[in-house]
Amino acid sequence: MEPMVYLNGQFLPKEQATISPMDRGFLFGDGIYEVIPCNNGRAIALERHLDRLERNLSRIKLNQAIGQTDWRAVIDTLLSQSNLASSGIYLQITRGVAERRHHTYTNDLVPTEFAYVFSTPPPPDALKPPAQTMRLKSQLDLRWQQCDIKVTALLGNVMHYQQAIDEGFDEALLYTQTHRITEAAASNVFCVIDGTIQTPTLDERLLPGVTRSLLIDILRDYSHIPVIECDLTLADALNADEVWLTSSTREIAPVGQIDEHRIGSGDVGSVWRHAIDLFQTHKFDYP
Fold first, then answer.
1. Any idea what the Cα angle at residue 10 is, between residues 6 and 13, rounded to 5°?
2. Annotated catalytic, 14?
3. Is residue 124 in some structural domain?
4. pLDDT in the model for residue 131
5. Are 80 and 147 within one domain?
6. Is this structure's pTM higher than 0.85?
7. Which residues, listed in sequence order, are joined to residue 36 by a DSSP beta bridge?
8. Which of 105, 107, 128, 134 is the most buried (most CB within 10 A)?
9. Amino acid 125: pLDDT
10. Which of 14, 128, 150, 283 is catalytic?
């Protein structure tokens, strides 16, 4: 039996879950979403995801949605209906249905709330590395200037990602006019350079990923390798010993190639093995 989905206070079969075509999430991408990774029925870093959800709802002034639903109970119910060893919870809140399509909105709209559980690949294992490392296509970042807000309007990310796929790569690596790396189309970026682990400093051009923050905390607490948040250029990534992508569904994914340039040996690196081993050991230790 396929697990139920959650929509506006009800759990129901996915084929019965419908929204109005006048929903602002459908018409404008006017909403916020989260993807929460889960292993063996347990959510990873749940409090961080819910805190980010609340912050982002506040950023787009969807304040009436904050605190209205017990998302922990919703997530527990969705997970209890699923027997997936590795899964994710997709959670979305839009501004709701308006009588007419207009760029502006009133504050009396009732938010639309939706969530469902989906299958994800098993977590990476230091003893069983991926058969292949990822191949990235570098691209000038053409998205809007508030990528730190996790909005549902992801067309810019979609176009970057699809361009990389169409050119035979696995993901896009985005950079600014000054060649400063922001992030990948759907992931944060880490580089191993001169015995340090480096990742771009947070600003409005990149998403503050929960897996990113969780990995930084684990490495700083349990690893001898320094972790540095700093500006990184495309040249830094091309010349790095290792490059990784982090996201809720990938966890930590090693990169073997950027454009036509091989990263390190092109294979999974020793620092990645160290990092993924620590991540799998401690990822449930942090709220």
1. 60
2. no
3. no
4. 77
5. no
6. yes
7. 89
8. 134
9. 87
10. 150
Written as six digits, the tokens of 35 are: 């993807």
CATH number at residue 229: 3.20.10.10
Q: In order along the chain (287 residues), what is the average pLDDT of each group of 10 residues? A: 88 96 98 97 97 97 93 96 94 97 96 97 86 94 97 98 98 98 98 98 98 98 98 98 97 98 96 97 96
Selection from 227, 234, 235 nearest residue 192 by Cα: 227
Out of 87, 119, 151, a domain closes at 119
- How many residues are recorded in the chain? 287
Residue 82 shares a structural domain with residue 147: no
Question: Do 204 and 170 reside in the same domain of the chain?
Answer: yes
Give yes or no: residues 105 and 150 share one domain. Answer: no
Query: Alpha-carbon distance 75 to 71, whole Å?
Result: 6
Q: Is 129 among the domain residues?
A: no
- Where in the sequence is the domain holding 63, given as residue range(s)? 5-119
CA distance 65 to 94: 9
Residues 106 and 13 in one domain: yes
- Of the candidates 170, 177, 201, 182, the residue with the CA atom closest to the CA atom of residue 263: 170
